[in-house]
UniProtKB/TrEMBL annotation:
InterPro entries reported in the protein's UniProt record: PigQ/GPI1
Superkingdom, natural source: Eukaryota
Keyword entries, A-Z: Membrane, Transferase, Transmembrane, Transmembrane helix
Transmembrane parts of this sequence: 235-258, 270-294, 315-340
This protein's name: N-acetylglucosaminyl transferase component Gpi
Length: 505
């Protein structure tokens, strides 16, 4: 019985035909029990194949240089590795015997010197698809295959192919002509985009003269602001670098600097909002007063009420003319006001989000949260009483009678997570109450100024332990540098004051 050397590894390509015809297996032998199968030669003698491989006559008329193939594969020559579908043939100890057939998915391989087999099946790469540049690349379109098929002259397919080739040549000549021309398209500047929106914003027909006046006014301010920004452009990179470098002082520092930088860079939008809001508010107030004129009323400023009033015919006629003019000019003013009001509210929302993030970073209850997770009993949030079952004492002999007794367990209740973040809920309620209140909506509808939420309302919850009146820097400096008042010594003996000479008074 032959000795077994251990595991044998065989690399077997999947494109080998699965037939039951006898053949000779050839390939490379990396070691005694490590072989790489290349092909199976059908109906040949193994000795003749071995001699042809040694002499080199087997690949005499090969299309590719075998020396180059052996060099790339790291082998000197191929060998006969075994036989296929030859059950009665005798092979050497290191050669394999493979059984193949259409019904077998994988080959059945045996070797006299191997105790176990490891067959590695692989798909052999196609050489013509491994080139970096190919004259016949892989087709990605389904219609390309029909172009390779030649049709007989005179048929319909041949005529269609001829027309298609003619169109291709024509398109190619047009493409070559287009290369001789240069087409330059500049993107629209912000000024051009603004001018386009001035004429027909959202498809509305506005008053051309008023729209041109307001547009020129805002564009003039925008040009001056852009000139100032252009002058500051050389130091803008240093400002951004400083904001990024300030991150070493904590996450809140770059957020605060970015919020201030946002306020400076959107200063022109703030001025546009103020101007358009003031114009809209004035026009709204005048229209409201003229509407009261039609009703025979007037607004009493001193008593803050609506009183009756008699108007002449000239006053009513002039009021009607002014009301008509202002009413038809109102859509133009509303369009400008609505545009800048939306931009202003977006900036206010972003700044409110940054301020909220700052408040969360500066006053996040990290210690309380970790203590709540680690040892919840050290963070009490209240107490509760728990009624326990009375233990049975009938089996215990007592010298006295025990009255009915209830056992109540007093235990501490840990602080809830909602209570830990209660201040943040109040902060969100204040922000929502400030920006989503009917007062803010009324201010937007009437053109009144909508101020952002004050920092005091944001940080008053977190700094609730501080005094209402805080000492300034100068007060602290005077308190530290001021001389302490001298105290006069009060000498008393037996309750009586002594004078300088030590005598009693």
């Amino acid at each position: 019985m032959p000795e077994h050397d251990g595991l044998m590894r065989i690399f077997w390509p999947l494109d080998i035909p699965k037939t039951d015809t006898p053949g000779v297996i050839i390939g490379w032998r990396n070691s005694g029990l490590d072989v790489f199968v290349v092909a199976i030669l059908k109906d040949v003698d193994s000795r003749n194949v071995e001699n042809a491989l040694k002499v080199g006559t087997l690949f005499r008329n090969a299309a590719h240089p075998m020396e180059r193939i052996h060099e790339l594969c790291g082998q000197s020559s191929m060998h006969v590795l075994g036989l296929a579908n030859s059950p009665g043939a005798v092979v050497e100890n290191l050669q394999i015997h493979a059984t193949m057939g259409p019904a077998l998915k994988v080959p059945q391989i045996s070797c006299a010197r191997a105790s176990t087999m490891q067959i590695i099946l692989f798909e052999r790469p196609l050489p013509h698809r491994m080139q970096y540049i190919s004259l016949n690349p892989i087709s990605l379109a389904l219609g390309d295959k029909s172009e390779l098929v030649s049709h007989e002259p005179g048929t319909i397919d041949a005529e269609e192919e001829r027309d298609e080739l003619k169109n291709r040549r024509k398109m190619k000549s047009l493409v070559e002509k287009l290369k001789l021309h240069t087409v330059t398209k500049h993107p629209a500047s912000p000024k051009e985009l603004a001018l386009q929106r001035i004429d027909y914003p959202a498809g509305l027909k506005l008053n051309n003269e008023l729209a041109a006046f307001l547009g020129d006014l805002f564009l003039w301010v925008l040009d001056h602001f852009l000139s100032c920004v252009e002058a500051l452009r050389p130091i803008l990179a240093h400002v951004i670098w400083f904001i990024g470098f300030s991150g070493f002082a904590g996450a809140s520092m770059p957020i605060a600097l970015f919020s201030d930088l946002l306020s400076l860079l959107t200063l022109h939008i703030y001025s546009f909002y103020l101007a358009s809001a003031r114009i809209f508010n004035w026009q709204y107030t005048i229209l409201l007063s003229l509407f009261q004129l039609f009703r025979g009323k007037k607004h009493n400023v001193l008593r803050k009420r609506i009183d009756s009033c008699d108007y002449d015919l000239d006053q009513l006629l002039l009021g009607t003319i002014l009301f008509t003019l202002l009413f038809f000019l109102l859509p133009t003013v509303i369009v400008f006001y609505f545009t800048f009001a939306c931009a202003r509210m977006a900036i206010i929302s972003l700044k409110a989000a940054l301020d909220t993030l700052l408040a969360c970073l500066n006053h996040f209850p990290l210690f309380a949260l970790m203590l709540r997770i680690k040892d919840s009993q050290r963070l009490p949030g209240g107490i509760c009483f728990e009624l326990r079952d009375t233990p049975q004492l009938s089996h215990i002999t007592c010298a006295f009678t025990t009255p009915p007794t209830s056992h109540i367990y007093l235990k501490s209740v840990p602080l809830t997570f909602r209570a830990m973040f209660h201040q943040y809920f109040q902060l969100g309620h204040r922000i929502r109450k400030h920006y989503l209140s009917p007062r803010v909506l009324l201010c937007l509808a009437t053109g009144k100024f909508v101020p952002p939420i004050h920092r005091k309302n944001l940080y008053s919850l977190q700094y609730s332990m501080l005094p209402a009146r805080r000492s300034g820097i100068m007060d602290m400096w005077h308190a530290l540098t001021a001389d302490a008042p001298k105290k006069t010594s009060d000498l008393r003996v037996n309750g009586k004051r002594l004078n300088v000479n030590g005598k009693r008074h």
